[in-house]
Amino acid sequence: MRPIADPDVMLREMVGGRAGPRVVAIGGGHGLAQALRAVTHYAGVTHAVVTVADDGGSSGRLAPALAIPPPGDIRQCLIALTPEDTVWRRLFEYRFDGADVVGHSLGNLIIASLADLEGDFEAALRASERLLGSVGSVVPASPQRLSLTAVIEGTPVHGQVNIATSRGKLESLAVLPPDAEASPSAVAAIQAADQIVLGPGSLFTSVVATLLVPGLAEAVNGSGAQLVYVSNMMTQDGETLGMDCREHLEALLSFTGLRSPTAIVANSEPIQVAAPLEALQADPEIMQTYGVDTITRDLLDEGADWPRHDPAKLGEVLRQLISDD
């Protein structure tokens, strides 16, 4: 991996900050977007390090055709970091439902267009942040589009969508190409962080997939940041079906080589889920065998259609953790 000459210079070029800790959230999809909304309640500088192995929907069509990282998860993070309901935000959220562009997000198309105009994908994201008035910065885990390959109960499975929807024990997971490199700006953000937040979100195809990019887990392990794992509220049909909270943590550590988190944050409120899904509960005694403190709180978003984290509640727990550190 290329050396980072001056991380502070790179960070200044990415985003300005306010008073508060430097926080990096790692993962992808809706889970990372919720984490970012939580982090913006207390962070001085916020960075999202986002998976670039998404191959579904609009991203799956655009990324290979234009030779750019998939913009979908990145777009969700940009919107999560944009507090004002502006015209630009509504444009980035808009999705076409007909004609040749059916299924495409306009935000994805804008990011792809800016990448062409700027001649660089990360420059396109900086331009997007300026248009949106984002309060943080979004960084692709790698400068290139990656793909995932797995073995699930002895059967090779290729692609993020296929892996996420396949039932059975996931035995191995890798990113391709094997010589992929982490984005220097992602490594710089991690090196400078006061707190690193993992999850919530798809365990294997978002969180682990991001940390498998060569250089990122090493950067987390080498940082002095507080490391927090936010537990999902329930299992995911496909990749984590039948796994309890301990097995989630064990998989996170064993697949990535990551150091044990400082703390795991889990929901304490009962939730109703339809079988075969199960609610996840963290047992403090079991988590302590990994050297991890367990914080259980009411994190449920009462207004959501499905069990998900309330950003304000989660943000307060994360703020208290970094304040007490």
DSSP strand count: 10
The percentage helix is 40-55%
Widest beta sheet: strand line-up: 3-2-1-7-8-9-10
Provide the CATH architecture of the domain at 20-54 and 139-324: 3-Layer(aba) Sandwich
Q: SSE order in H/E notation?
A: HEHEHHHHHEEEHEHEHHEHEHEH
Instruction: Output the CATH topology of the domain at 20-54 and 139-324.
Output: Rossmann fold
Counting DSSP H or I runs of 4 or more residues, the number of helices is 14
What is the CATH domain class of the domain at 20-54 and 139-324?
A: Alpha Beta
- Kindly report the oligomeric state of this protein: single chain
List the topology elements.
Layout: H1 7-14, E1 22-27, H2 29-39, E2 45-50, H3 57-66, H4 72-80, H5 87-93, H6 106-118, H7 121-132, E3 137-140, E4 147-152, E5 155-158, H8 160-164, E6 170-176, H9 184-192, E7 195-198, H10 203-211, H11 216-222, E8 226-230, H12 245-256, E9 263-267, H13 284-288, E10 293-297, H14 311-324
What's the gist of this structure?
With 325 residues, the chain is α/β, with parallel strands linked by helices. 40% of the residues lie in helices and 16% in strands.
